[in-house]
Amino acid sequence: MSYEAVCFDLDNTLYPYPPCNEAGKRAALAAFRESGHEMDRETFDELYATARREAKRETAGTAASHDRHIYFKRALRRHAGERDAATALALGDAYWEGYASEMELCAGVESVFDALAAADTNVAIVTNLTTRVQLQKLARLGIDDRIDRLVTSEEVGREKPSALPFATALAAFDCRPSEALMVGDNIDADVAGANAVGMDTALFAADGDAPGDELSAQRRPDYRPDAFADLTEVAP
Q1: Is the CB of residue 109 less than 8 Å from the CB of residue 143?
Q2: Where are the alpha helices (H) located in the chain, listed in sequence order?
Q3: Cα–Cα distance, 67 to 129 (Å, whole number)
Q4: What are the Cα distances from residue 80, in Å, to 32, 59, 224?
Q5: Which of 22, 65, 94, 186: CA 20 to 30 A from 48?
Q6: Are 35 and 226 in contact, with CB atoms under 8 Å apart?
Q7: Domain span holding position 48
Q8: Residue 169 is part of a domain; what is its CATH number?
């Protein structure tokens, strides 16, 4: 089947997330120590997990729920009772610098993008995070010139699975939902969200950790490619 537009999630879809997240945490821990705080990895992980959990609970449904600078601001306050803006900023920056150092496209991404370009198919990234960070990732991966539209949850004010991020991308291309495919790793955000607006869906998790086949109709993808390059058999 050919599509007028293909929308991709970014994180853990076009590249594996776990090694990047781990590299980011290592870099942030090093920055914690460089700022004069004695800390082992276990303590760091507990602080990070607690701050992340609190932030997600209090900012659920917004791009802020993914903001590492918020996590580290809270972690620093919890650890040392400090409201040190410079250190919190340094920790968040260190995380993203470490994260970016491990980013690498999945095999097959470039060939799929080549096929989409040859077919004159519109390409969008539809993602739940802040715009600045996602722009940095696209530039780091070297694919920013392959993307016709970036839609972030920060920009539209709603997180997937809300219909708004998908509708925003489709409107940019003057495209009906039935003419578009959404590719992502998250059953609820990417598959169920896009299914609900009438798009076809493909489930692909770059880390290989995709749910099994026992899914309700609303949460079931139309395609489950084993490799990213297999998407050339679906689109264009």
Answers
A1: yes
A2: 18-34, 41-58, 68-80, 85-101, 109-118, 131-141, 153-156, 163-172, 193-197
A3: 8
A4: 11, 23, 47
A5: 186
A6: no
A7: 18-101
A8: 3.40.50.1000
d(C-alpha 135, C-alpha 145), whole Å: 11
Q: Is 11 a catalytic residue?
A: yes
Asked if 96 and 212 sit in the same domain, the reply is no
Domain check: are 89 and 190 in the same one? no
DSSP code of residue 18? H
Question: Are 177 and 94 part of one and the same domain?
Answer: no
pLDDT tens-digit map of 142-175: 999 999 999 999 999 999 999 999 999 999 999 9
Domain boundary among 60, 79, 101: 101
Q: What is the dihedral of CA 219, 221, 227, 232, to 10 degrees?
A: -150
Claim to verify: residue 79 and residue 122 sit in the same structural domain: no
Catalytic residue among 11, 67, 190, 200: 11
Q: Which two tokens stand for residue 54?
A: 């609190």
Helix 18-34 vs helix 68-80: crossing angle, to nearest 10? 40
Residues 165 and 117 grouped into a single domain: yes
Residue 84 among the catalytic residues = no
- pTM over cut 0.85: yes
Dump pLDDT digits (tens) for 203-218.
Answer: 999 998 776 666 676 7
